[in-house]
Amino acid sequence: MTNPLTILVFAAVFAGLGFGVGASFIDAAVITLSVWIGSALWWLLLTAGVAWLRDRLSATVYRWINRISGAALVVFGVLAMVSVLA
User: Fold this and answer.
1) Same domain for 8 and 49?
2) What one-character DSSP code corresponds to residue 57?
3) Which letter does DSSP use for residue 45 in this model?
């Protein structure tokens, strides 16, 4: 919630939906609760999916996931350094 881009996106969505000047407390509460429930459901589904997959993947698959993730981090790091120097 402290990410500036997130705050700007929420402000744009609320303005686009017509919330702002003249919005009631109930409108604000419904939107806030809706965002909270949506976020909670997303994380619940994400963690449930990971927990379900955890027992179904072998150590070899985990090793390859780690290698690919590490390689992606290295590539993005190198690209970030190159973009600073260029």
Assistant:
1) yes
2) S
3) H
Six token digits for residue 1: 């919630």
Write out the two tokens for 31. Answer: 């939107």
User: For the chain, what is the domain count?
Assistant: 2
Do both 31 and 46 map to the same domain?
A: yes
Q: How far apart are the first and last CA of the chain?
A: 33
pTM over 0.85: no
Domain with 75 in it:
58-86
DSSP H helical segments within 1-86, as ranges? Answer: 4-16, 25-54, 59-85
pLDDT digits (tens, 9 = 90+) for 4-23: 877 787 778 777 777 666 66
Q: Which of 41, 9, 33 is nearest to 17 (CA)?
A: 9
